[in-house]
Protein 1
Amino acid sequence: MSRADLLTGLGVSPGVAVGPVARMAGRPELPPPAPVSDVDGEVTRAAAALDAVSRDLTDRAAGAAADAAAILEAQSLMAADPTLADAVGELVRGGSDAAHALLPGRAGGRP
C-alpha cells in the first residue's frame, strides 16, 4: 500500500487517525445457502455458534492487554446478547440457514 491509498470503512469513533495499518484477512467465504429441513436443530446450531464465539472472545480477553481486553469483552457480550439469538432464530424460522442468519446485517447488525 502506498501513502496515497485511501482506506474507507465504518468508523467506531469520530475523527481522524494516523498510524501504521495492520490489515486483517478477508471475510471468510460461506457455503451457498442451504435448505433447512430441521428448523429447531438449525436454531440450536446458531445459538451454539453464538455461545462458542462469546466464550472464545472471553478467553482471548483474559490474555489481552487492558484496552484490547475491554474491546474483546464487549464483543463477547454482543455475541451473547439474547436479542441477537432471537433475531437469528427468527431468520432461521423464516427460511435462512444458520450460517447466513448470523451474517452482520441479517440479524440487525451492520453489514
Protein 2
Amino acid sequence: MEERKGAVTLRGNAFTLVGKEVKVGDKAPDVELLDNDLKPVKFSAFKGKVVIVSSVPSLDTPTCDMETRRFNTEAEIDFVIERVVQAVTKLREMSPLYEMAKEGIDLKSVEWTRD
C-alpha cells in the first residue's frame, strides 16, 4: 500500500498517511466510515446524495474543534447545502455562457473575439 511520508502534521509533528491520495475529480473510494453514532457505514450507502465528509483526528486542535462545532447538526448541514445551491444557481443565472449551454449551443464551437 502506498505511503505518503509527512503528508500531514499535527502540532508540528509530521505523520505518514497510508493509501492512495484522493484528488479533485477522482471517484470517491467505497471506504468504511463511522457515522454519528460511531457505527460503520460504507460510503456507497450515500450514492446520489450530497455528502460532507469531516475527518477529525483530534478535538485538541483549534481547527478540528472549530470544524466539529460548525457542522454538528443535520439542520446546519442542510442549511449549508441550501446556501451553496442558492449561490451556484445565482451565478448560473448571471452567466451568459450558462444560458448558451442550456440552449444547446456547443461552447467549443463558438468563435470568441476580443475587443
